Amino acid sequence: MRLFRKSLFWILALVVLGGAFLLVEERVEVADKEEARILRLFPFEADQVNSFWISNSTKGVSARVVRKNEGWWLEQPLSARGDDEGIAKMLQNVLKARKDAVLFEKPEPAKLKELGLEPVTLEMGFEVAGGEVRVRFGDQGPTHNVAYAMLAGDQRVFRIHADVRTEADIGAYELRDKTVLAFDPLKLKRLTLERRGMPRVIVGHDRGRWSMVEPNAGRANQVNVLETLYAVQESEIKAFVEEAPKDLSRYGLARPRITVSILYEDEDRGQRTVELSLGGKDRARRGYYASTAGATNVFLVEESLVKALLADSEIWREADQKTGLSRHHPPAVEPT
Length: 336
Fold this sequence. Notes:
Blueprint: H1 2-39, E1 51-56, E2 61-68, E3 71-76, E4 80-81, H2 84-95, E5 101-104, H3 109-114, E6 122-128, E7 131-140, E8 146-151, E9 157-161, H4 162-168, H5 172-175, E10 188-195, E11 201-206, E12 209-214, E13 218-219, H6 222-234, E14 239-242, E15 258-266, E16 270-282, E17 287-292, E18 298-302, H7 303-309
Antiparallel strand pairs: 1-2, 1-6, 2-3, 3-4, 5-9, 6-7, 7-8, 8-9, 10-11, 10-15, 11-12, 12-13, 14-18, 15-16, 16-17, 17-18
Helix pairs in contact: 2-4
């Protein structure tokens, strides 16, 4: 009986101690969260931002981006679809900024100038449900791992991590969608490849059967066709050249060197066609001028994409079934 009482005592003691430990741990966790909230530079999350703008007078940047039902869209300096993934990442990195320290409560104008906060060069504004929140960024510190920042309506100067300033110091190119062609390679119905001075290539796909229609009818090499399709689908715009050129011949696009036409099945909209035209080479920037059907702008793509599209047509045809030998050949034309 005595042994039972002792055991019961220790069990109760452990229960009490365990409960006390959990209570302390919970209070510490709450305190840590409250401290993290206080140290945050911005009291809102990325999904609460309806629009934002970035201004950099030194670089001549003035960009405004708005959230719409279909994603982010640039409104300034032009109307264009935004890079949803890139913008989400940038907002996440900027809005998680912490006030490492309050360096000055009410700095003099000379001090603001010394810190790069006056005159304002880099500034960012966020439109949220409660109104607009603006922040100005100053210079980086002597060690280049910290930077200075001020919130509109607050005289204090905060020290933040330099990476936050770097994330905010971007322009229209970084904010803009850089997709060349949007389609699903696995939903291909028909690929048509027109290349100046070379045979036309047509590959069809119907319920798992891949066939080459031109230049030589036969079974298509599914792996190589998909590899080429993914090279197109995953390629990104290297640079935006001109938004509405009057003369496409200066870019070699009045009579394109390569035209890629892709018919594919869209689950929501049925069969769709996307088309890419490739023209002359920009040797200085190591890319090729390009445009897409339905758009007016000219942009640059990487040399590697053009090289892949200039391959010998036999690379997309299945190996000779009689001999078992591959018909793969090196590119017939090297891009120049």
